Amino acid sequence: MASLQQVVEQLVSLAAGSDATAGANVTSSLASATPGPLATLSSIAKMLFSASALREWAILLMLGSLFETSRRLLSSMWSWLINSFFITAVFDDEDSSFQWIMLWLSKQPSWKTARTVEISTTNYGIYSPAVRFSSDGSDPSQNLVYIPAVSECYTLWRNYRWMRVTRVSSPSRGGWAIKDTLTLRILTRDHRILAEILEEAKEQYAEARKASVTVYVSDSSNCWRDLATRPKRPLNSIILDPGIMELVVEDARDFLGSKSWYSERGIPFRRGYLLYGAPGSGKTSLIHSIAGELGLNVYIISLSRSGLDDTGLSELISSLPEKCIALMEDIDAAFHHGVTRESTPPPSFPSSPDPQQADRPQDGPPGPSGSRVSLSGLLNALDGIGAQEGRILFATTNNHGSLDAALCRPGRMDLHIEFHLASKYQAEELFKRFYAPPLTEVMKEADQTGKADSGSVDLGCDGKELINLSESSVPPSPSTSEVFEKSDSTSASYIGISHRARAPKLSTQQCTQLAKQFAAAVPERELSMASLQGFLMTYKVRPFVAVTKVAAWVEKELSSKKKSDLI
Ligand SMILES: Nc1ncnc2c1ncn2[C@@H]1O[C@H](COP(=O)(O)OP(=O)(O)OP(=O)(O)O)[C@@H](O)[C@H]1O
């Protein structure tokens, strides 16, 4: 050891001191005849490889190997122990099973004794929306859930089984995002225990989301991120001409149940629907309703998203889950960056004879939005080799004529459904939906058959004012209009309806009669359902006023429409 120490000291002095000093030291200590650094180095080498030094090297090597071997032995013993007596499951936050297990964990009673927990009011602290809607209808923000805190280790007991939970967050994708991993270690050799837990977690998750539809959008790294969770919209809230909705819903339902039919015939298991026609006619609303009805989530593919190119689009489409609705809104506008729908003359995409130009968006990539998706990129992504099986594609457009034939062909868009401006039938049904008595009232009414209907109703504003049906054309009483519009010099002015104002209780018969009067004033296929809805919203607790005012409103709407058509 002394010799090694000597060598080290000399090396240090060589490196730090001047050559002369170091040389002198080496010379004196080694009693070498040759002066200078060369002699020093050779004497160091001799010392390093002398018999005593080699022995010391060997001892060091043995000690190191012994240490490393025991470390490895212990670690493999620990792994063996864990593998023999525990079942370990790892959940990654990019997989939906992560959401199931987080919800399941948030319901475990063991949290009562945990000393460090993460509290979440809306989700489990990450992306999952499952508990945003409380089942009892109370304010979801009041629902507190406990979830495992990051970098903490928890012990849980379930059916007398000991388990350990660890949640770890680490940077991913080059440090741009945070990735969560949850490890569940169960003291058992029986795999059925894990399967049971997963099944239970999956059921709880499905139950929590029963009443909602989750909408996903893609982020800049082309990964799907949950944007929002919306309550399901009942199908009967969409009013279309008879038969249209049933056709689409039944078609989609039938498709989802025909996987084997498709695979037996070697047909790609995909279906596309193109909804086109007037703006505000219910295209998007129908898609959301269908998603709720079929229990599917909606994945919005925004072709004009900044930074999206053909490769990104393919990635997005191939990473869609097996059963879902992919939604492309305003598919025509995606290829006309910066040009408003109204001012765009209907073009045809691959009109250029130059094949290189044919596949490009009309205004050349990228548009002001930054998107670089080309038509051929879209076509390939829709039914190329990586396209996801089982997905339902819904595309909407207001400009059907502008779409390329290749995009519209069966296999890509199998069913084309046209949406029109509101018919009288739709106007009547919309009115009924606004003011129809609740189902309980309807049932009471049915019970009381035989009793004459009084024909008078409570106007609802103060609970006292009664008018006869025959007086429905009477202008609103001062108290009613006060609720709607108030403006005088002494108080603040407002337009709108107070939410405290109660809607009048109409009988089914009254509602039907008013709806007919309303529909009579609405011209066939001139106004959109969205605009009719907007009008009724203004009178949402005053059906009689709505009926009296509708004719004037229609006239105003038509004249402003005419003016904008002329511009
Ligand atoms: N047929 C309909 N039945 C019930 N409500 C409707 C209908 N059409 C439109 N609405 C109402 O009008 C609003 C706009 O509808 P929606 O967004 O579905 O129209 P759209 O056809 O997708 O319009 P755009 O083409 O401009 O995107 C929604 O609030 C919806 O409730």
From TrEMBL:
GO terms for MF: ATP binding; ATP hydrolysis activity
Main location: mitochondrion
Gene Ontology CC annotations of this record: mitochondrial inner membrane
Keywords recorded for this protein, A-Z: ATP-binding, Coiled coil, Hydrolase, Membrane, Mitochondrion, Mitochondrion inner membrane, Nucleotide-binding, Transmembrane, Transmembrane helix
PANTHER family for the chain: BCS1 AAA-TYPE ATPASE
Protein family according to the UniProt entry: Belongs to the AAA ATPase family. BCS1 subfamily.
Name this protein carries in UniProt: P-loop containing nucleoside triphosphate hydrolase protein
Annotated organism of origin: Paxillus rubicundulus Ve08.2h10
Lineage: Eukaryota, Fungi, Dikarya, Basidiomycota, Agaricomycotina
